Amino acid sequence: MPGIVLIGAQWGDEGKGKATDLIGSHVDYVARFNGGNNAGHTVVVGDEAYALHLLPSGIISPHVVPVIGNGVVVDPEVLFQEIDGLQSRGVDCSRLLVSEEAHVIASYHRVIDKVTERFLGKHRIGTTGRGIGPAYADKVNRVGIRVHDLFNERHLHDKVEASLHQKNQMLVKLYNRRPIDVDATTDELLRLGVRLKPYVANTSLALNRALDEGRSVLFEGGQATMLDVDHGTYPFVTSSNPTAGGACTGTGVGPTRITRVIGVAKAYVTRVGEGPFPTELHDEQGEWLRRQGHEFGVTTGRPRRCGWFDAVVTRYAVQVNGLTDIALTKLDVLTGLKEIPICVAYDVELEDGTRERCEDMPVDQSRFAAAKPVYETMPGWSEDISQARSFEELPATCQAYVKRLEELSRCRISLIGTGPQRDHVIQLRSLVD
Ligand code: IMP
Q1: Residue 41 annotated as catalytic
Q2: Fewer beta carbons within 10 Å, N or C terminal of the chain?
Q3: Residue 183: which domain range?
Q4: Whose CA is nearest to atom 1 of ligand 1?
């Protein structure tokens, strides 16, 4: 039975919510496997727009079991806010399953995220300030708090004490802040645990059983390939694995159960936060893309950096995720441009000062940061494409643009987003079988 992984192929905000929602209506389970409430996607159903950060987008579909996997870091306060917000609009959230092994974002993680960024100054990452990095750091340092820890007072107190021991030294001595109280933090977490308990489950077991019984699962990634802590533009990355492999480690489902890996790529590129971005436009053209594409963060409201489609990045995403399909989103945003540049390769400087054309992602980050895009220009189109329901209905120049992206990416494009509504889409082949 299908185990479908859906991930971002660029730097995030590719419009995964829409694709997830589309596929989600054909699957039984939607499981998030990484990140936390640093993600943000808007799901539009009819006239209602839902901004989700932590909850899997499958929460909107009544037949889907939404799952928060062990690879996610859960801020229970944010989770309850999202549940309350949806329930007040008549969306039933009682089917939600939260992994008992997921790590918890406590209030001190948010504090540390913010003070660290301030302390780093010009070396800051530009994080979302949601405590994501510090929660994952605790996980790897083996001083994290897991969901099931919230149900045992003595045990939790010990864990909070162990976790805060070093942090308080740092807060007081390095950052000149007040220490965080162990008892008050334990009480706060215990209270959150009471409300969380009905949702908590062994989600690895639930997902494996579902697959055994012939049900289909969509594994939904937060963030994107280029923000992956291993494969992204380190150190300007998030602290988890948004790449396809993260779907397995982040849910406790083996790789042999994955049947399809779909990468979502925008018809141009955006990025939030700091870090290299070869095709970034610093001029009016970038401003135009930002306006046309409404490129402001759902989670932080920050204006996104905008640039032309980068085929080197997409080829890399195809490689590290083993993509079987690309879902190309926001093609309509480019309507009205006379010409559309596509970055086909980079011009990079070698150690001896000579320059070289580079078709593959440079592993050396300083080389990537200094890479100059090599552009090829395609003719644009001016017709409204939002009503097109088949590839043939797109203007010829638009078809040629899509075909060229497919060729350069070395992966088939199976879905094209042509506007913000759910039905503004061209499906070239099924994504679920
Ligand atoms: P963190 O995930 O809050 O630690 O932030 C690390 C980097 O990832 C920053 O550059 C963020 O802007 C970026 N980031 C985190 N989540 C998202 C997302 O959902 N979309 C785009 N960028 C993100």
Answers
A1: yes
A2: C
A3: 103-196
A4: 127
